[in-house]
Amino acid sequence: MTLYAFASRLEFAGVFPDVISPDAADEAVLNKVIPLGVHGKPVGNAVILGIGLLEFATNLSRILSRKDELGISSVVLVGICGAYRNSCLSVGQVVRVDTEIVGDLGVQEKDGSFVAWSSVSGGKIVRYEAAPAQKAPRWVASLRGASGISVNCCTGTELLAQTRSALFDCDVESMEGAACFAVCRVFDVPAYEVRGISNLVGDRDKSSWRVSEALASLRDCIISGFSAG
To answer: Across-strand partners of 133?
Structure first.
């Protein structure tokens, strides 16, 4: 059975508004495994694991330690993200994120510039990978593939957006993908990531974000995928 993992109540309720209310208290839904069904047919389970790399990784590890008891055969991380301007991706589009890098692991120099940890340590950039797309559910495999970075501190300026995009050659930015892929690899569970694009990454301007549109696109994509079998 597939586990659909969300970071936030907002994302879960936006995709499955008939399952939980957007106003539900965090303590009432966090880490609760919730059955999903379409027309009375079970299609998997869902869980809200918390925002950011640390909380998401910790709670996903707790869930996957019971994977046999819960019958978890794969994980699909579902949520929203920002797209970098040179990615040729559009707000409202749904993508399959195939690789993730921790994008804010590094040091800040005294001039304010950011240096990735791989440059400091002399090592290679670590890329966390989804399971092969050809083994994914058909609706996931059919999506456009993208590369992502995961950050605990979201980009808020055009300068930082350009820096991160150039350093990591990435398409989208979110907060949990690397954690999902890393934890699922440890537990030997295939993992995939599906995100709706809510904004372009740059100077932070929440008035331009289209979160509802991104979540509606995600919902349409997932429900259509469930219906197709």
So the answer is: none
The dihedral through the CA atoms of 77, 80, 82, 85 has a sign that is positive
Query: What does the pLDDT average to over 177-196?
Result: 98
pTM exceeds 0.70:
yes
Strand stretches in the chain, DSSP E: 2-6, 34-38, 41-48, 74-83, 94-102, 106-108, 114-116, 128-129, 144-150, 172-174, 191-200
User: Which amino acid does the sequence have at 110?
Assistant: K
Task: For residue range 30-41, list pLDDT tens digits in order.
Answer: 999 999 987 778
**Contact criterion met (CB below 8 Å) for 182 and 130:** no
The DSSP bridge pattern shows strands 34-38 and 128-129 to be unpaired
pLDDT for 229 equals 60
* SS3 of residue 49 by DSSP: coil
Q: Which residues pair with 128 in a beta bridge?
A: 100
